[in-house]
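In response to reviewer comment 3 from the previous cycle, which asked for concrete evidence that the modeling workflow produces usable outputs, we include below a single protein chain processed end to end. The sequence was submitted unchanged, and the resulting structure tokens are shown without manual editing.
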Amino acid sequence: MDVILGRENIAKTKIIKQPDVVMLVYLLWDRLPAEVRKANFEYYEPRCGHGSSLSPAIHAVVAARLGNMALAEHYFRQTAEIDLANNMGNSAAGVHMAALGGLWQSAVFGFAGLHLGESEPRFQPNLPESWRRLSMRFQWRNNWFDVALP
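The workflow returned the following structure tokens.
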């Protein structure tokens, strides 16, 4: 957006470069009431220009947690295409590590719905319709977990 409209013009709009508030919703999920999470996502999602390679992945996580699977899958694919399709125009300079980490987070914390609580991990899966299965292995508090979600 900065390149197309210029910084001065962007400053006069409600367009944002990256998902600062949506990121806070993601990080503080359990501390925010459901209506606050939903309202903030719905307000900021259409205003985000996704100028950061981490932006679409964070939108994918929050959209999946809110149950908006079409939007979650859209942002998941957009994240994957940052390097695979060079959709930011700079993949020749190397991979976007934030996007790769965000892609993993959107699969694990978004679609699989992993929540790390006090006693044990719990899952609230929201898999896209096009996915048949999601499996993972992870270590948490010195214990290994093998998970397969239908």
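The two ends are 39 Å apart (CA to CA). We consider this sufficient to address the reviewer's concern, and the full set will be provided in the supplementary archive.
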